[in-house]
Amino acid sequence: MRAFAAFLVTLCVAAAAHAACPGCFAGGGPAATDCFVEFGGVAADGTLTCTDGDVSDADGKFDGTCTAKLQVCINVTGDAACTSQALSRPLSVKPGGNPVGRGLATAVQGLALSGEQCVDVLLPIPATAPRKNPTKAKKTRLVVTARSGSQRDVDKLKIVAQPALAFVGTPGAPTPSLANDVQPILTARCAYAPCHAAPAPAPVQDPQDLETGNTFAQTVNVRSAMSTLPRITPGSVKDSFLARKILGQGIGRNGGAVMPQICPGAPPAGGCLTDDEIRTILEWIAGGAPND
Is 220 exposed, middle or buried (0-12, 13-18, 19+ CB in 10 A)? Predict the structure, then answer.
């Protein structure tokens, strides 16, 4: 897992009502102050969910860190019930002691107090789960307060950073083809002697042949001898042992090494899987692992 990185910030000024923050989460406070600060990229209940390596992760890497994307807007126009356009002090973020709260507090310091403005914040959050619960998410709760004179807008945010095993696929994206997309990756990285190919596919305790024409029958709904899970459970990354092996998460004591072996250290003959290759395999599994 890489160290907690510095946040990234982009500042923009709105040109029209709600143009900078369409569909923002206002917080549901009093109508007279609810536009003081609003948030983009969060659900209607104030939750921002980020999964390591998927489309919600700004850096797109399976690295044990999820870079959450959050937009913060102040003095949002277009709401007749809320007319204040000048805050009396900078936004307050609590708790400010944890890295997420500290990063967000630092990012919003660049906002002026008057006029409609937005800042795009990238917050790297560790997304590695404990061995006994490898799909457990890290949850951070923040309270952001905007003040204009004696009036306040207090909003609560929940930021959820999930490990890569929580990957569920990219909404609306077509499911990768086994023959055209997944098999070429397995052929290059895994299906060669003395690894997952005939005449003696590895590992000895759980032989698995990943050569063309054999992958589906050898993996989909096939129980692994090294785990209580099937090698691939269609539609579920977290319940697929093959996914755990290539991610290096939730393998267990008897599950052997990360695949391909010795990655990311000294690469084997076929080299290590790239982030894009891992994502293709996970998208295939999440899409139901079709035999096409």
Answer: buried
Examine the domain organization and report whether 254 and 179 are in the same domain. Answer: yes
Asked whether residue 71 falls in the same domain as residue 144, the answer is yes
User: pLDDT confidence of 261, banded at 50, 70, 90?
Assistant: confident
Question: What is d(CA 91, CA 93) in angstroms, rounded to the nearest whole number?
Answer: 7
Residues 150 and 176 occupy one common structural domain: no
Tens-digit pLDDT profile for residues 237-256: 999 999 999 999 999 877 77
Burial 190-217 (b: 16+ CB within 10 A, else e): bbeeebbbeeebbeeebebbbbeebbbe
Residues in contact with 241: Cβ distance below 8 Å, sequence separation at least 6, in sequence order? 224, 226, 227, 229, 230, 231, 232, 255
Contact 144, 92 (CB under 8 A): yes
pLDDT at 8: 58
Counting the structural domains of the chain, the total is 2
Name which residue leads in pLDDT, 13 or 122. 122
Residues spanned by the domain of 51? 8-166
Query: How confident is residue 178, by pLDDT bands cut at 50, 70 and 90?
Result: very high
The verdict on 66 and 197 lying in the same domain is: no
Name the H helices within the chain: 99-107, 183-189, 215-219, 241-247, 275-286
Same domain flag for 64 and 77: yes
pTM, two decimals, is 0.86
Residue 120's CATH number: 2.60.40
